[in-house]
Amino acid sequence: MLAFSKMARFPGLLQTRATLFLTRNYHKQPIEVVWKKPEHGWTKLNFDGSRKHGQASIGGIFRNHKGEFLLGYSEPIGAATSTVAEFAALKRGLELVLENGWTDLWLEGDAKIIMDIISKRGRLRCQEAKKHVNYINVVMPGLSNCVLSHVYREGNRAADKLAKLGHQFQDPKVWRLQPPDIVLPIMHEDAQGKIVLRTK
To answer: Tens digit of pLDDT for each residue in 125-142?
Structure first.
């Protein structure tokens, strides 16, 4: 890319690039994102990882076909990459799936790389990530019905809140009857089918 001083010598180039930039942004339409309920009899897990100052935490939330809360979790996992945090969040969710005996499961996260690696059996260099993926690849086929999908972050807000909440804890947290207050407004909006616009 040309430095500004050089671009000033070529006003035509500057104008063309500026026009192109404005055109791209002007025509970019917001995307409507909605959290979708699972089918009757299915359980949906939204999971997410969070990383702040080199430290990672994870979170997830289980809901039924009405969008009602079933279970939530949040915990710090120490120093880790964002990718490892995403895999750890899914792995922890699957551990809770087995504990609760859920079989018809919809798994949903906002990190597309997770979906690509698991669905395409992609290679990983990180040993910590490999450990999580190996567990996931063993558990998922053992469930009666299990689907994995990607959603934009705007459709994963409840899990995102729980993942970020994990930075405040020293030990793992699991909510079984009532979710933490921080996710109640989001859960209500999700259940009502609120459209959240993605502008990025």
So the answer is: 788 889 999 999 999 999
Fold of the domain spanning 45-129+159-198: Nucleotidyltransferase; domain 5 (3.30.420)
Residue-wise burial string across 73-95, b where 16 or more C-beta atoms lie within 10 A, e elsewhere: bbbbbeebeebbbbbbbbbbbbe
- Of 93, 84, 82, 83, the C-alpha closest to 59 is 93
- Return d(Cα 97, Cα 81) in angstroms, integer: 24
Please name which of 122, 117, 128 lies closest in space to residue 150, comparing C-alpha atoms: 117
- Bridge partners of 145, per DSSP, are 104
For 15-39, the pLDDT digits (tens) are 455 554 454 555 578 999 999 999 9
- As given in the structure block, the two tokens for residue 76 are 């710090």
Domain residue ranges of the chain, discontinuous segments joined by + = 45-129+159-198
**CB burial class (10 A; 0-12, 13-18, 19+) of residue 175?**
middle
Q: What are the b/e assignments for 2-24, b being 16+ CB within 10 Å?
A: eeeeeeeeeeeeeeeeeeeeeee
Residue given tokens 């260099």 in the structure block: 125
